[in-house]
Design brief:
The complex is a heterodimer of chains A (293) and B (364). Helices cover 69% and strands 0% of the residues of chain A. Chain A has helices spanning 2-8, 14-42, 46-50, 64-72, 83-113, 119-128, 134-148, 154-178, 182-190, 195-203, 208-224, 227-231, 240-248, 257-278. Classes of the chains: A mainly alpha (293), B alpha+beta (364).
């Protein structure tokens, strides 16, 4: 492995190589320093932070800011910590990601393998939805949610994010399925499989890489969304992004920077985990061997 | 009584007509090969039989049942695809039994049928593997197994051997022929390889431009091609074609070559009235041009010409020369000592000369 990767790299002079590494290192630090500052300061007591030395390691290591951010910090009027809002986000993100991915897969399947007159136009319109700015749909969406009676609830947010996610997930799956051998569909038709059987038994099991891509994309976007979360929820259904904002920007009392740092990391953690856990499936080619090889 | 009956089938995509009024009657147990250059409509015809494409016009019957508008699954046919189209996520066993599962057979019946087919195709040891772990030849067998297990009325093969290497292709060709002899099921087989067509078929349908140019036994097609297209498409190297003039006198017909040389024909009776000034296209296969002919035989015309290129292939020696502005190819014996630049006599076997109408291309 080592040998082959060395052999496959174009040879460059040692000066060029040194430059490349220096530049990479600088960018690495550039991105990692904020995370480092947040991490070390989240384990310090507030006095220590006030004393300066942002980059120092904690002198008195404490996990109190973390437990405070999680379960006791004042958010809005209640001292609940981020925990209930974290759960709100989970309740919102899991169904929304699942639904938008499934609908996207089904759309992609139809738009690539069961084409109909004007299927390109339909695909184009779906793509168009990727480019609609969030702000434009706020008021119409509020009306829709009101009409359905799910305004101010987690299910309302699930609907908004699912609808918004379909454009991208359709794009992902349609392009993936476009390269999927149509002969497999024909073979399955001859074998007696119907529309949904082919989808469930042939297409989905071969869609691993694109499902991962789609899930990471949707999860990150939906989890990190602030605007819809702030607009369409009431106090009990706020997602963690909104709660974090309320925690950090509360104007009363002392600014507990260590708690804010811990809270911010907590809010970012799930997207990080999703990426680390499923990132390695990105490159896995599950299609190997279906056609001539 | 035809078993698979295709009547007046036409198919167009938008403004392009791919199939033009195809009629084809296939008897039960027959091995029919559809052959033609790419884009001739052979695969489209196969797909319409399978039901994967709808016909624009016409009717398809299988075993006396009109299936023109029946979905593929209910036509009782099985198909082997060029790319094999094995389901990548399923084991070989699951690939083979998928159709049975879709038809609601019990797990036991599925296993039993699969084991039988695997036995026939000698793939029993592969059943637990995924298609990705198989070689090209093994995938080909699995694809056939998937078709066999259904025990269908008709097998459809869409260029099943074209992804295999040369040696394996010849082996599998023999196996397919043996399989057909054993099962006796009707087969429609599409290929662009005319050797495959000749070796496998009971009857060959040569297609071009969405039309069946000729339907006949391999012998018919090869020795009595119906028109110029069939004559030049079938056979490798292909038939030599030359513009000549025919004239008749008391002793029979005389062929005059472009540069003035002429020879008499005593065995052919041709009606010259339909031709303009006796102009025809003459065709002769490379193996009908001999290096040596029996002495004083009236069946051969000797034409002296310079040898341009000699291509030894082991079993044969192909000798290329020019005649009347056309490149001619003669198949001599493998041990021929002819060298390029030699001026030798080429002996044309007059019994194996074909004539075609230069305007219609039809055989005269």
């Amino acid at each position: 492995m080592g040998m082959s990767s060395v052999a496959s790299t174009p040879s460059t002079g040692s000066i060029a190589r040194t430059c490349i590494y220096v530049v990479l290192l600088v960018f690495c630090l550039f991105y990692l320093v904020p995370l480092y500052v947040m991490l070390v300061n989240s384990f310090k007591e507030l006095e220590e932070i006030r004393g300066g030395g942002m980059l120092n390691l904690p002198e008195n290591f404490t996990t109190a800011p973390w437990s405070s951010a999680w379960s006791t910090a004042q958010i809005g009027v209640q001292p609940t910590g981020l925990k209930p809002y974290f759960l709100n986000s989970i309740y919102m993100v899991v169904p929304a990601v699942f639904l938008s991915t499934m609908i996207g897969a089904l759309n992609g399947y139809v738009l690539s393998k069961w084409t109909f007159a004007y299927h390109r136009l339909v695909f184009g319109l779906l793509l168009f939805s990727c480019f609609i700015p969030f702000q434009i749909v706020l008021i119409p969406m509020a009306r829709v949610l009101g009409t359905f009676g799910i305004a101010g609830s987690t299910w309302g947010l699930v609907l908004v994010h699912t609808v918004y996610g379909i454009g991208f997930s359709t794009l992902f799956f349609r392009n993936y399925y476009e390269a999927f051998p149509t002969e497999l569909i024909k073979a399955a038709q001859l074998d007696g499989a119907g529309f949904f059987q082919i989808f469930r038994r042939i297409m989905l099991p071969s869609s691993g890489p694109i499902i991962v891509v789609c899930v990471i994309w949707q999860f990150t976007n939906i989890w990190n969304d602030f605007l819809f979360g702030a607009s369409f929820t009431d106090f009990d259904s706020q997602p963690i992004t909104v709660a974090l904002n309320n925690l950090v920007s509360s104007s009363t009392g002392v600014k507990e920077y260590n708690v804010h740092f811990a809270g911010a990391i907590l809010a970012a953690l799930p997207t990080l985990v999703v990426y680390i856990v499923s990132g390695r499936y990105f490159v896995r080619g599950l299609m190997a061997g279906s056609v001539k090889g | 009584m035809s078993f698979l009956k295709i009547s007046n089938v036409s198919k167009s995509f938008a403004t392009t007509q791919v199939l033009n009024n195809i009629d084809l009657d296939i008897a039960e147990g027959e091995f029919i090969v559809l052959v033609g250059p790419s884009g001739c409509g052979k695969s489209t015809l196969l797909n319409t039989i399978a039901g994967l494409e709808n016909v624009t016009d016409g009717q398809i019957e299988i075993a006396g049942k009109d299936v023109t508008h029946t979905v593929p699954a209910d036509r009782d046919i099985a198909m082997v695809f060029q790319s094999y189209a094995l389901y990548p996520n399923m084991t070989v066993e699951k690939n083979i039994t998928f159709a049975l599962e879709m038809r609601g057979l019990s797990a036991d019946a599925q296993r039993k049928a699969c084991a039988e087919v695997a036995e026939t195709l000698q793939i029993s040891h592969l059943l637990k593997r995924k298609p990705g772990q198989l070689s090209g030849g093994q995938r080909q067998r699995v694809a056939m197994g998937r078709a066999l297990v259904r025990n269908p009325q008709v097998f459809l093969f869409d260029e099943p051997l074209s992804n295999l290497d040369a040696k394996l292709r010849v082996d599998m060709r023999t196996e397919i022929k043996q399989l057909h002899a054993k099962l006796g099921t009707t087969i429609v087989y599409v290929t662009h390889d005319q050797i495959e067509a000749m070796t496998l078929a009971n009857r060959i349908a040569v297609m071009n431009g969405g039309i069946i140019q000729q339907l006949g036994t391999p012998d018919d097609i090869y020795n009595h091609p119906a028109n110029l297209f069939v004559a030049s498409f079938m056979g490798s190297p292909s038939m030599n074609i030359l513009d000549v003039t025919l004239s008749s006198n008391k002793s029979g017909l005389t062929v005059t070559l472009p540069h003035g040389e002429s020879f008499g024909l005593n065995s052919q009776k041709i009606d010259l009235k339909s031709l303009k000034d006796g102009k025809v296209k003459m065709g002769i296969r490379p193996e009908s041009i001999l290096e040596k002919a029996p002495a004083n035989s009236k069946n051969f015309a000797a034409i002296e010409q310079k040898v341009d290129v000699v291509e030894p292939s082991g079993s044969d020696t192909f000798v290329i020369f020019e005649l009347g502005g056309e490149t001619f190819n003669a198949r001599f014996a493998g041990d021929s000592t002819v060298k390029s630049g030699d001026k030798i006599k080429f002996h044309f076997d007059l019994r194996r000369i074909h004539f075609f109408n230069p305007e219609t291309g039809d055989r005269i």
